[in-house]
Specification:
The structure is a single chain. This protein is an alpha/beta fold and 726 residues long. It has 5 domains: 3-202, Rossmann fold, CATH 3.40.50; 210-338, 3-Layer(aba) Sandwich (Rossmann fold); 402-509, Winged helix-like DNA-binding domain superfamily/Winged helix DNA-binding domain (Arc Repressor Mutant, subunit A); 527-611, DNA polymerase, domain 1 (Orthogonal Bundle); 624-724, Arc Repressor Mutant, subunit A, CATH 1.10.10. It contains 34 helices and 17 strands. The strands form 4 sheets. The chain has a 7-stranded parallel sheet with strand order 3-4-2-5-6-1-7, sandwiched between helices. A 6-stranded parallel sheet has the order 8-13-12-9-11-10, sandwiched between helices. Strands 14-17 form a two-stranded antiparallel ribbon. The termini are far apart.
Amino acid sequence: MSQKTVLTEALKRYFGFDTFKGNQEAIIGSLLDGNDVFVLMPTGGGKSLCYQLPSLLMEGTAIVISPLIALMKNQVDAMRNYSEEDGVAHFLNSSLNKSAIDRVKSDILSGKTKLLYVAPESLTKDEYVEFLKNVPISFYAVDEAHCISEWGHDFRPEYRRIRPIINEIGKRPVIALTATATPKVQHDIQKNLAMLDAKVYKSSFNRQNLYYEIRPKTANTDKEIIKFIKGMEGKSGIVYCLSRKKVEELAEMLQVNDIKALPYHAGMDVATRSANQDAFLYEKVDVIVATIAFGMGIDKPDVRFVIHYDMPKSLEGYYQETGRAGRDGGEGLCVTFYAARDLQKMEKFIQNKPVAEQEIGRQLLLETASYAESSVCRRMSLLHYFGEKYEKDNCGNCDNCLNPKKKVEAKDYLSAALETIVALKEKFKADHVIDVMKGKMTNDVKSYHHEDLELFGCEEATDAKLLNAVLRQGVIAGYIERDIENYGLLKITELGKKFLKKPVSFKIVEDNEFNDDEETEVVKSGAGCAADPELYSILKDLRKKEAKKVGLPPYVLFQDPSLEAMATTYPITIDELANIAGVGTGKAKRYGEEFVKVIKKHVEENEIDRPEDLIVRTVANKSKVKIAIIHAIDRKIPLEEIARSKGMEFSELLDDIEAIVNSGTKINLNYYIDEVLDDDQQADIFEYFKESEKGDLDEAYRELGDEYTEEEIRLVRIKFLSEMGF
């Protein structure tokens, strides 16, 4: 019987499928022939079958090295469903007790177990290495292999130790699998696993059924998400956030707005995390709000939407996470909320890492920003990033293609850019190339004496965003290449050299507009964010009048976003007002009476139908975490200790304390502030906020930043709001 017939029959017998997908059959055949195999296959392409089926056909036990406990449990459950014998698949990791480990070992030694899932940390333990030396091993599978590479989006140092351990246990064929790898990452994986001669099977990264869209992050993002999910009623979706805190908050927000949602992040206890994952898989809830810890290898084919509340740190991460939508080939909507400031915050987080890691991190963030801000077809940009050419001009299934911008001729700009790259001897990144073209006297320009170049200032009058678009689209068109090995230095390709000799038409689309000005809030407050600008104006005047009565700056009563929400949802009772973000019961009772009277009168006089469906219910500000913070402050526990115990950054803790004060609870931080600032310093900052019209923090940083840190200014502002507002 031919290998093809054997494989087809086995596929039908064990998994119930009549035919293989894509490269599956060739991959499995190659592994059965004893070859090392490298598999690059997008999410939903059927990677797991590439090692599951051969494990059932080969003698011995296949070792699958996998990064997540949740992933292992999910895959083991799936394999047991395909077999009459529960012992056919097991996992070994830190979640098992001694008796469970003994049972696993017994099944392996008896020959029942064909697939053993192991975390890389467990694989390196001496007891497991010694045990596996005595086990007949069919092959090793390294799943999520991008974790090996520092250039991958989920680098894990323990993955670098896999090859030496394999050599120690006993050499057998290796199959490495990933859903996302640039050419650089692919080479890194093969080199580290000593499988440069492996058979490589690369599937197309094009997922035609996925719709990609980037939206600007604004004050109304939470509302947009709620409205979007309610429009997808009964359908499964994932919402990704970068911080655990935001995961908890957003999940709670969705729940109070009658959306069946649960949180998932690594800080939760194992039992809750596992229960929440199962609730999503078994459709007890529609939405999971998660950090990127969720979803690796989770085989749920009918996820209909993936929302990113925050732009991911890399395009690999973005591609993998969006790839969890529409795995069955059906609808898959991928919507991401982007603010340049989010990426700038991420850049701050990598500043304490080694220089090489910082450079890699910045390069990955730069690629992500380029993708988000570009007006080029999203599909084309993604495929180019992964080394694949997309031939069409318009994919018809992304925001940029459905709302195309007019193309402008950029032949002269590209010529100037290429000439500048040549003049710089191909040794600099895009930002420096643009600085030279714009004639900017930066420190780097001065230190390299690039102001002496003939081309210095050749595009002085041209907008930097346009020059950025020229460079980005010059890369996609093949005139320029980024030297990834050297952190993105720009070099000219052969095609670029031909262009310089004989320029041809080069049309580009200008980048999308995103507010990335550090001196302004990404979220613009004001009437423009309120549904009823007239009411917003009335409420601002009322706030001024009421603040004057009590001798306080207006922002101490209610801040602008709270007024915007009032002018959008029209609260006409104290209870409804208390539910507005940043108000709370205390402030509603203290200052709210005149406000609800004015709103009620405005609604009646203008015959306004209050849009109940638009009213986004907010979570009570005194949630469990906030109550715990209040109690800890009452006990005078140092703020660093509170932040550490809650798994927060110090700035996140201050966010929560500000929210507590804004919602009407008095907080006394004197015990802590007295330790960090003397009386004169406190009085200096306090006086500033007393005289400030808006109490704006950015303004305060600019005025006081030379003498005080951000944290010190925020602490005294909290003291001011607490003492003056109550």
